[in-house]
Amino acid sequence: MNPNNYLVLAAILFTIGAFGVLVRRNAIIVFMSVEMMLNAANLAFVAGARSTGTLDGLVAAFFVMVVAAAEVVVGLAIIVSIFRSRRSASIDEPSLLKY
Amino acid sequence: MIAALIGLPLAGATALLLGGRRTNAWGHFLAVALSASSFFVGLGLLIQMMGRPAEERAVSQQLFQWITVGTFQVPFGLHLDQLSIAFVMLITGVGTLIHIYSIGYMAHDENRRRFFAYLNLFVAAMLLLVLADSYLLIYVGWEGVGLASYLLISFYQHKPSAATAGKKAFIVNRVGDAGLAIAIMLMFTTFGTVTFTGVDAGAGQASAQHLTWMGLALLLAACGKSAQFPLQSWLLDAMEGPTPVSALIHAATMVTAGVYLIVRAHAIFDLSETARTAVVAIGAITLLLGAFIGTAKDDIKKGLAGSTMSQIGYMVLAAGLGPVGYVFAIFHLLTHGMFKAGLFLGAGSVMHGMHDDVNMRHYGALRTMMKITYVTFGLGFLAIIGIPPFAGFWSKDEIIHAAFGQNTFVGAAALLGAGVTAFYMTRMMAMTFFGEARWQDDVHPHESPAVMTIPMMVLAFGSVFGGMAMLFLGDIEGWLEPVTGFAQPANAISNTILIPITLVTVLLGAGYAWLRYGRRPVPVTAPAQVSILTRAARADAYGDALNEAVFMRPGQYLTRSLTWFDTKGIDGAIGGLAAAIGGISARARRLQNGYTRSYALTMLGGATLIAFVLLLVRL
Lengths: 99, 619
Prior knowledge:
Distance between the termini of chain B: 99 Å
Number of strands of chain A: 0
Structural class of chain A: mainly alpha
Number of domains of chain A: 1
Structural class of chain B: mainly alpha
Strand order of the largest sheet of chain B: 1-2
Radius of gyration of chain B: 31 Å
Strand content of chain B: under 5%
CATH architecture of chain A: Orthogonal Bundle
Distance between the termini of chain A: 52 Å
Radius of gyration of chain A: 16 Å
Number of helices of chain A: 3
Largest interface: A-B, 12 and 11 residues
Oligomer: heterodimer
Shape of chain A: elongated
Shape of chain B: globular
C-alpha cells in the first residue's frame, strides 16, 4: 500500500487547520481548526502504522485522541466562561495578558 | 637600663595624653622631670661605658621576640654603642633644655600640657630610632619621629598655615620613608635579615648592584628626614610650629636622623662608591642651597632653617666621604646640636620680647634690651660661622679638610658654604641686635624669664667649649672609631694652610654682611627692586614651585584623567551595556502582545523552522 496519498491528504488537512487557526476570529472555529490539525496528525500516524505494519503509530494516534478529548473539555469550558463574561466568542477580544 | 631611656619619656607622653585636663597643673613638670631622668640614665650609661675597654663598650638588650615568620625573625632589641650614646646624650640633653625653656615659652598657652606630651613623644621616638638594633625597629622610631613632628609643627592647628605646614612635613617625609622601606626590603632579600649585625656581616658578600641600590634608597630616606635636596621644602614651612619645636627638630631630633642612618649603615656605603658619591653630591648641593636661601630671609626663624639645611648638608657630605668623614659628620652633628638649639632658643627669646614678630626688619638695637639673649645668641653665632676656638670651628674645619681630600670641587663648595654661612649669620646678628631700633608701635622689648635664659646659657656654654671638650677631652675620633671606622684623610692641602683660608673666607663673608646691614640702615619694608638671585632665595630657591610643577600638577592631571577615564570609560562601558540591554528588552517586550493568534503564528513558525532544519540535516 502506498501511504503517499494519505500523507498528502494529512498535509492538506493540517495546512487547512493551521490556516484556520491563524485567520479566523471565532474561538469555536479556531477550536475546530485545531481539532482538524490533530486529526491530520492522526491520519499520518495511522497511515505510517499501516504501511510499516507496526503498532507504534496506532498507539500514538490513541494518545493524540486522548489529548484531543482532554483539550476539548478544558478548551470549551474556557470559551464558555469567556463568552459568559464578555458576550463574545472572538479570540482577539481577550488580549489583556500582555506586556 | 637601656629600655628606661625610651620608656621614661614615653611614659610621660602616655600619662599626659591619657591623663587629660587633670594633669594640666603639673604636666609640664612631669615631662621635664622624665626627660631629665632619661638624660641622667644616659649619663650613667655613658660613664659605665667609658669605664670599659673599647671593644666591650657596645651593649645590647633583647626585650622580646617581635616578629617570627618562618625563619625570618626580628627581635625587639636595643643596641647601645659609642654612636648611640652620643646621640642619646644630644637628644636627652638638648631635649631637656628645650623642655625647660618651653615652660617659660608656652606659659600662656592653654594647650601647654598637650605640647609637653608631644615633646616627650618626640624624644622617645628619636631615642628608639637611635637605640634600635635592626633597621626594621629604626623604621618604627623613624615613623614615630614623623608623627611627633607632624603633631608639633601643626601645633597651632587653628592657623591654616600651620596645619598645612604639618601636613607638608608629613607628606614630604613619606617620600623619604618609602626609601627606607625599600632599603629594608632589599636588605631582607639580600641578607635575609635586617639586624645591624646581620647586615654588617653580610655586606661583604653582597653584589655591588644590591649595595648601590640599598645605599641610594637609604639616601632617599635620609633626604626626607634630614631635609636634603630635593626633599628640603618641608623644613622652611616647619617654622610654623612653636619655636622650641624648631629648636628640637633642628638640633636634637628629626633632621639628625638621616645623618645617623647613613653613618649607621656605613657597612653598605663603605662598599658602594656610587652611593657615596651620590651622598656627597646631595650634601654639597644642599649645603649651598640652604646657605643661599638663608641669605635673603627676613624671617629670623626661616633664616635659621636655611642654615640648618646647610649645616646638615655639611654632615651628609662628610658622611658620604666614607671612613674619612663619618666621625666628623657625627662630631659636627653634636656641636651643631648645641649651637643651633642655642640660636633657635635665642630667636624664640627675641620673639617672646617682640610680641611674636619674626620679621628681622622690625628688630634692631636689641643688644641693650636683651643682654643675655644677645650674648648667648652671639656665642652661638661665633660657633656656627666657625671662629676658633668655638665649637663649630673644630667640626666644620675637619669636614672642609676631608672634603678637599675627596675632590677639589667638593672642598670648594664646602669652603664657599662657610663664607655664605658667615654672611647670613652676620646679617641676622646685625639686623637683630645692632643698628637703630625699628620696633613696631606698642612693642616693648624685654628680657625673657630665667627659665628661658638658663637653658640658653647652658647651650651657649656648649657652643663655646663643646667642640674642644669633645675633640681634646673626649677624643671623639677614637671614641667613634670602633663603630664607624676612621681613616686619616689623604690630603692635597694640609690643615695649616686650610685653616687660614677658611678663616679669611669666613671673615670676608661676615665683613660684607656687616658693611651691608651693620653700617647702613636697614629699611623696615623689604626692598622690592632686588636682583633675580635675591628673589629666588626669598622664594626658597623655587623648591615649592618645582615640586608643584614636577609632581603636584602632573599628579593632579594624572588623577583627573584617571577619574575621567573611570567615569567616562569604565562606568560608560558598564552603563552603556546595561542601557543597551534595557533598550533591547523594552523592544522585545512588545512581541508579547496578548493576541492568541500571534502566539500561534510564532509556534507554527518555530515548528516549521525545526522541521525544516531536521529535514536539512537528514538530507
